[in-house]
Specification:
By secondary structure, this protein is an alpha+beta fold. It is built from nine helices and eight strands. It has a single domain, classed as Aminopeptidase (3-Layer(aba) Sandwich). A hairpin with a 2-residue loop joins strand 1 and strand 2.
Length: about 210
């Protein structure tokens, strides 16, 4: 996918594509530059590069890069099927954390529960248009997104997010969620300009949870 961006009178062609295994080192460097205060690696792995290699092996994960002149400027980790990602073993292992999440975000959980019940009711009564409900595939989320400091302001982040939304719409996914730190007001403004809305707030981690309805 090609994205043409016009900034300050200059036209740039950003290439959005699935990453390859040889890209993980560059992607890891961008991640470490964007999150210098990170005290631990992703998923408890020894290095962030190991995490990105693991992502490439997972069916529900997409590691997508944005490049200009063969240089990776940014990336996004997109999970397009949260139901498949959260399997039975994971639920059994993290059941206490799930309970805490429900207690901390009751409005969000209730909202999703009402949505699924409504979908089930529609499935029972909408004989003429069964595909309206049968095509619903739950939710997705942007797990990690980062852009090189030298490339910020070029529209790279926006292009990556819009690509994720495009994937979600193609797969008829209900929503795209993401979490952003409270102090990152610039990112919050960007997400809201695209159409994301705040659905919850984590007081302990000081994180805003935003959602885009597809």
């Amino acid at each position: 996918m090609f994205v043409v961006i016009l900034r300050k009178g200059r036209c740039r062609v950003i290439v959005i594509q699935e990453s390859k295994s040889e890209d993980t080192k560059d992607i890891s460097n961008i991640y470490l530059e964007a999150f210098p205060s990170a005290t631990r690696s992703l998923l408890g792995l020894k290095t962030s590069e190991e995490y990105f290699k693991r992502v490439l092996q997972h069916n529900s994960y997409s590691l997508i890069t944005a490049s200009l002149n063969n240089e990776i400027l940014g990336f996004v980790v997109f999970i397009d099927n949260l139901f498949e990602t959260v399997g039975r073993r994971w639920i059994l292992k993290h059941w206490s954390e799930l309970v805490m999440f429900v207690l901390k975000h009751p409005i969000y959980v209730l909202d999703r529960l009402i949505y699924r019940i409504r979908a089930l009711i529609l499935q029972k009564i909408s004989f003429s248009r069964p595909s309206v409900v049968s095509d619903l595939k739950g939710g997705s989320c942007i797990d990690v997104i980062a852009v090189k400091k030298s490339a910020r302001g070029l529209g790279v982040g926006t292009s990556l997010i819009m690509h994720c939304i495009h994937i979600a719409k193609e797969k008829k996914i209900d929503f795209v969620n993401l979490a952003v730190e409270e102090e990152n007001s610039e990112a919050i403004r960007l997400y809201e300009s695209i159409g994301f809305k705040q659905i919850s707030y984590d007081k302990n981690d000081k994180m805003h949870i935003l959602s885009f309805s597809c």
